[in-house]
Known about the structure:
Elements: E1 2-4, H1 15-29, E2 37-41, H2 55-60, H3 62-80, E3 86-90, E4 94-95, H4 97-103, E5 107-111, E6 115-117, H5 131-139, H6 141-150, E7 154-155, H7 156-162, E8 167-169, H8 174-187, H9 190-200, H10 202-222, H11 226-229, H12 231-239
Helix pairs in contact: 1-3, 3-10, 4-5, 5-6, 5-10
Amino acid sequence: MITLNRPDLRNAFSAEMHLALLTAFREVCADPKARAVVLTGAGRAFSAGGDIDDFLVLADDFAQRRARLREGRQLFEDLINVHLPVVAAVNGPAVGLGCTLAAACDIVHISEATYMADPHVQVALVAGDGGAVAMPLNIGLLRAKRYLLMGDRIPAADAVSLGLATYADPADQLMANAMDSARKLADLPPQAVQDTKMVLNQHLRQASVSMLGYGLAAESQSHDTSEYRAVPEKFAARKG
């Protein structure tokens, strides 16, 4: 099991967390005994996505911005190239990058009490990362445009009906059900499961090659806009 473990900040991604997850994917892929992976979040959230505290840093420091976007691209590409089946246990809100990660997994269990969302545009960012790759393949282009252009929340039941999640589970059964899916996958012939997954993920790899470079370049430009710079102040006003 891989757990996103920054619960005090709803598992929002820092540079350190990007690198830790990259390391975790590579370690599990190198384990000859591993047959399946469960990905979940610690505490009340799966992941809140980007960290608001980093917004002004990324606006002012171009080198850090470039590094963070490279890490985000590597994270998505590494996830879709994990040869083992990956089961997401979406225990709480999966937002932004959290939604992207869940959408790129192979089986997605989501708590009935939570939601998914990719609100890049609501925080003045182009939705140029892996969400724009995975979501149209999962739910269709027109539906993906609605959720990426408007940033609306997708309740668990809707996520299943749209095709963004596989199962909606009662919160107290979520982890047990996700582990059961992982065990079922692990009990099947490994070469058949792993290479079937890799064949299917060729759709994601092809879309990634054609889209991610352009999307992340556009997202980088978002950091230079006045609307983006105003986001931390708006969040602070809400908390106040």
